[in-house]
Amino acid sequence: MNCSRRQPDLYLSILHLGGLPNMNPKRNPDFKKTGRGSSDIPMPRYPDAPISRLRFRQKPGLVAYVTCGDPDPATTRDIVLAAIGAGADVIELGVPFSDPVADGPVIQRASERALKNGVSLEDVLNLAGDVRKQSDAGIVVFSYFNPVLRMGLERFCAAAKEAGADGVLLTDMTLEEADEYRRCAESHNLAAIFLAAPTSSDQRLKKIAQACSGFVYAVSRTGITGAQKQLADDAQKLVKRIRKYTELPVAVGFGISNAQQFAEVGRFADAAVVGSAIVQTIEQNPGRAPQAVAELIRSLREGAGKSATRGS
What we know:
By secondary structure, the protein is an alpha/beta fold. The protein has a single domain, classed as Aldolase class I (TIM Barrel). The protein is built from eleven helices and nine strands. The protein has a nine-stranded parallel beta sheet with strand order 5-4-3-2-1-9-8-7-6. Strand 8, helix 9 (259-266) and strand 9 (271-274) form a beta-alpha-beta unit.
């Protein structure tokens, strides 16, 4: 597979950072040929897929991202449970990766710390199992494709489902390469979540929306991950475009870091994804990361509630 011939659905600034991770098997020994199809026609979703835990019962819903293993696996579990207790509806369990080209410096540092702790995809799935024993919140495994490919698609999907995960988001997976992955996910009743970018054409947004199950992840802006002072104007326009093609919930991510932005997203989308702000909170609060993350999430929820009251 030559990634230079693809048009990825995600953050286009990846291109100026050097392109997607090289998945050409001749140049990257970690990449193995899978025989994935290149069809650009989305397969129909199974309407009865059990993805109810990925529905957002609160408005706006809150998707909390953590890099697993930062600062260590045990603390990550405590952070996740604290986030759920404070009001997170869905947890994205980030798999640390050595070449996180779509992520900003905050999540890059978190991946480095987790990898130094020896955290692997298997460890992330074990963590998902521990969380599922204690919570009924939605769980999404959030990864670049190479760690999944090294484990094997079938083995990964089976293990993710057994652990209690509800869905998977592979950040560098394009529709053209996703047929085998989607079939495997659907066979294990896992939602396959894709990214939709502001730069995507309407034709491509339609295909992305039709390919998704669970929810659609709308990237609020082009660029790498990271907290921003203001929410990009593109976000609301993108959500409006996506809604033309699907009735699935739409979650907006990239750059949401404060209560004002969280409340703003709630006016036009179903949920907000909070990632870098959480990871930065973990980094800045050694020894009390679970409490600090819970305080952040409660502040987002309380701020959104006050905003809704003022607007009523």
